[in-house]
Amino acid sequence: MTEISLLDPPVRACPYHAYRALRQDAPVKYMEDQNIWVLSRYEDCDYVLSNAERFTSKEALSSANAYRKCPAALDILSNSRALPRQRTLILADGDQHQKHRKALQNALSPAKMLREFGPTIERRVNTFIDGFIETGTCEVVSSIAIPLPMSLVALIFDAPEEMIGTLKAWSDNFFAALSGLVSEDVVIEAARDTLAFENFILDRVAERRGTDRTDFLSRLINGVDGAEPLNDAEIVNICSQILVGGNESTISLLGNAVYQIATTSGLEDALRADNSKIMNFVEECLRHEAPLQAMYRITLHEERFGDVVIPAGQKLMLNFGSANRDERFYENGDAFDLDRDNTETLHLTFGRGRHACVGQTIARREAVIAVTALLNRLKNIRLAKDKPVVRSPIFGVRGFKSFYIEFDV
Fold this sequence. Notes:
50% of the residues lie in helices and 11% in strands. It contains 17 helices and twelve strands. The protein has helices spanning 9-13, 16-25, 42-50, 71-77, 94-108, 110-132, 140-145, 147-156, 164-179, 184-208, 216-222, 232-245, 248-263, 267-273, 278-288, 320-323, 360-377, and strands at 28-31, 36-39, 55-56, 137-139, 294-299, 303-305, 308-310, 315-319, 379-383, 390-391, 400-402, 404-408. The strands form four sheets. A five-stranded mixed beta sheet has the order 1-2-8-5-3. A hairpin with a 4-residue loop joins strand 1 (28-31) and strand 2.
């Protein structure tokens, strides 16, 4: 097969032709330019996710650790108030992972949170729409996709609304550094932002320790419903994952959903005619354009995938963007199909098994509420003429930096 690099600009702009070629000709492929093994078929990704005891998740979020190659950034991070650093949740394995997952689930209580925040989410979406509806146009990412999940993250951290921009800037730099494909200046800035975010969280933790407050941070600190109390370093690591995971995937999901409506003939009318299809529409968006295209694991043992043997200690890229379109599991998987039964083969967008995303229910609900509100208030949603569509520049993210729509009311 023709040599493929996932870092080539045309592939990063639209990777699905490359994914299809990999699935057909090299489903287990060593990418020398990234020093990583790429698994592109559904069954192989599912095997890794379902056998956590054979693969470590300690570097699950990135293809490379940018900080290790940047002494200036490491020097900045040495001033942290949360040392020694702790790996939690998706970055931890075994009993350590289970301890932190239980603490987060009990503190977050997704079902309870949705009952409490559901009306808030709906109110905020309509407030965002109020801000642009009279103009007949809007830039989707800055007007809807960013402020909705970021306002929810602010609520979780009990942060004032005026901090939303700061929280998003921190998250952007964290995520850029995680990609491992950025300049040293970005890595250094991410290190500075890491300390700023840690101080923000630890100041709030100090205010809450020993109190009977019932907000999220207090519940995480004190341990509730049988969960163990956590130390400062554990709390900081969990909160950093909430900051990035709680907004990045949802931002891309919301943008992808609006873009799909604006570019797919008849889709808006079909959803408006039957609102019960909105939930499956969101699920198909998650399958068709996985916001985070991959997660990573390291082999703990020698592993065989078909005819390919991978030694222990090798890094794997689980290519969800490809697996979610695997023709052996999804008929015409490259096509967006509103009526596709996504319960027959569950997509891998939020992971699977013990490391499945804790906040996936919240992300789905945010998207359903946002799409419902947009359909209720806007008509004939379409891409704006003569306005650029700009994809996210971050490797592994399938979403938009900006795009404009026009509409009728």
